[in-house]
Design brief:
Distance between the termini: 25 Å
Order of helices and strands: HHHHHHHHHHHH
Helix content: 55-70%
Oligomer: single chain
Shape: globular
Radius of gyration: 16 Å
Structural class: mainly alpha
Strand content: under 5%
Largest sheet: none
Length: 192
């Protein structure tokens, strides 16, 4: 058990993307922790071929924590994939699941070349919800969506809430070739 947990924690950052076929069966585990660690590893592996399997597990998943990590894995592995984007946008529209809404924004930046995805990000950046504003900014930074730097700069300049403004400024630094790791704490806080 402990060795498997350590393996799953190491897989995402240290393995080639095709390794997803070795671990995807853990999404069927009755153990929430294994499913959660597997979803996180699959997000890190970002294998486009894993999207179909991830989609099939997303609808069935009962644990909210696991489900949000599967959603992020779908968004990352399915960057620019229309079917993946559809699942993400549906999650964004489901106001009964705020955890999924926020995590949808965190990966939607990878789909920002799509007009509908970009419209959702802009809607979130201009919303009354500070978590959504931060998540949308983080999503653009995560995607390194440099084409949208000036758009984000405009929202950051007009932001009144100090924490949101600080997050947006850090996101702008990433878009201007800063280290993504500077946003790790923000991602962890907003994604939970």
């Amino acid at each position: 058990g402990d060795q498997l947990v350590r393996l799953l924690k190491a897989v995402g950052g240290a393995s080639p993307s095709n390794f997803w076929t070795t671990i995807d069966n853990f999404l069927k585990s009755s153990d929430d922790e294994f499913r959660n660690l597997t979803a996180v590893a699959l997000e890190q592996l970002a294998a486009p071929d894993s999207v179909k399997v991830l989609k099939s597990h997303f609808g069935k998943e009962k644990s909210r924590q696991v489900k949000k990590n599967i959603l992020r894995a779908i968004g990352v592995a399915g960057a620019e994939n229309k079917a993946a984007r559809s699942i993400i946008t549906k999650a964004w529209k489901n106001s009964k699941e705020p955890l999924l809404q926020t995590n949808a924004l965190l990966v939607l930046g990878l789909h920002a070349s799509d007009k509908k995805a970009l419209a959702i990000l802009e809607e979130a950046l201009s919303s009354n919800n500070p978590t959504h504003r931060q998540a949308a900014a983080l999503g653009l930074a995560f995607a390194r969506a440099k084409d949208h730097t000036e758009m984000l700069r405009g929202y950051a300049e007009n932001e009144q809430e100090p924490e949101c403004k600080a997050v947006m400024k850090r996101c702008l630094k990433v878009l201007e070739d800063g280290a993504l790791s500077t946003l790790a704490d923000d991602f962890a806080r907003i994604g939970e």
